[in-house]
Design brief:
By secondary structure, this protein is an alpha+beta fold. It contains three helices and eleven strands; from the N terminus they run H-E-E-E-E-E-E-E-E-H-E-E-H-E.
Length: 192
Amino acid sequence: MPVNTKLRWLTVCLILAAVVHLVVVYATPVVLTTVTLNRLLENAPANAMFHHQAGVTTVANEELANPTMLVSTCIYDVTEAPLRIETFVPKTFWSLALYTRDREAFFLLNESQTPIDNVTIDLVGPTSAREYLKQDISVPIIESPKDQGIAVIRILVSDETKRAAINDMREASTCALIEEMRTIVVPRLKPS
């Protein structure tokens, strides 16, 4: 084989190796996240808060050690009715993130963005939103672009002496469908 032909083959192989490497590097997180989320959506009960074991996060039936982070998840399906999420906000890092079934993050709230020590939000989807949004509701309403997804609450335990108290607050977090869409009357000032 002439040197020119060997050089061409070497160049083609290097380019092909680079392309394969880039595809694997960029596709692996997407594939793993999709598989994990789909397993969660298939195996977890919908519209109920699941509090993962303290210090251990169970994802797709695999335990991942995480001694400083407490995690709670709620697989939601708001096809028929809105969902109410209620949680306490401890005096440490705390976040509430909402994702669609397709891994699209559409809402994030952390402890520095809320001045109060508890958060209540109503989550509506494209099919449950129309009637609910017409009502006078006293809590913030978040519109999900899809009817199904996952809510994730993360709390950092930076002081081990406060772990039990923080865990009790986390376990008081709930998510449940709002079966009866009651109108909450909020007093309004009349223009003078």
